[in-house]
TrEMBL record:
One of its GO terms (cellular component) is cytoplasm. It holds the Pfam family Acetyltransf_1. Residues 1-106 form the N-acetyltransferase domain. It comes from Microctonus hyperodae. This is N-acetyltransferase domain-containing protein. Gene3D superfamilies: 3.40.630.30. It comes from the Eukaryota. GO terms for molecular function: acetyl-CoA binding; N-acetyltransferase activity. InterPro entries: Acyl_CoA_acyltransferase (IPR016181), GNAT_dom (IPR000182), NAA80 (IPR039840).
Amino acid sequence: MSCDYFPTSLMLLYNDNLIGYCKISCVPNLKDSCYIESVVIDVGYRSQGFGSKLLKGAEYYMKLRGIKNVYLSTKGQENFYEKNGYTICEPINMWDNRTTIITTAPILINNQTQIFCGPPPPPMPEYSPTLSPIITSKTYMTKRI
Ligand SMILES: CC(C)(COP(=O)(O)OP(=O)(O)OC[C@H]1O[C@@H](n2cnc3c(N)ncnc32)[C@H](O)[C@@H]1OP(=O)(O)O)[C@@H](O)C(=O)NCCC(=O)NCCS
């Protein structure tokens, strides 16, 4: 484990050797959700259940921190994730809904000068995971943990 907050990286050790790695980020747009950015098992240790073990450990780690939904995208590893309980879902957009807070209130300098910021920016469009036009060749998958 690299740190106690997201994003974080988890490592899988076998006989003190690092054989697996997993990176997890939060999804700012979606409540109680994380995104698995990568799952890698050392090529010499594949097809022995280590990938599934790493994924389960990552899910356990996320669940302890209140995460309820896990997302990921893949190209070619759909079988592996299906085997581990993931189902295909709509692509998600991680970042659309970020908001910048710009104040329009007067700012006092030396208790006298008032500076007014410009007019407020137009409202951000409503975020909807199904409406975001994401063009991708990857398969998005999700699991409720
Ligand atoms: C995907 C990966 C993490 C799986 O790790 P693993 O230790 O082999 O996983 P497990 O042994 O728990 O499960 C293997 C099962 O997943 C599926 N699977 C794994 N790799 C697969 C592949 N390349 N194509 C299709 N199915 C695959 C198979 O069902 C396989 O079962 P089998 O080996 O009995 O046929 C590993 O192959 C890897 O590191 N790949 C390179 C990095 C990568 O592509 N990561 C995923 C990014 S989305």
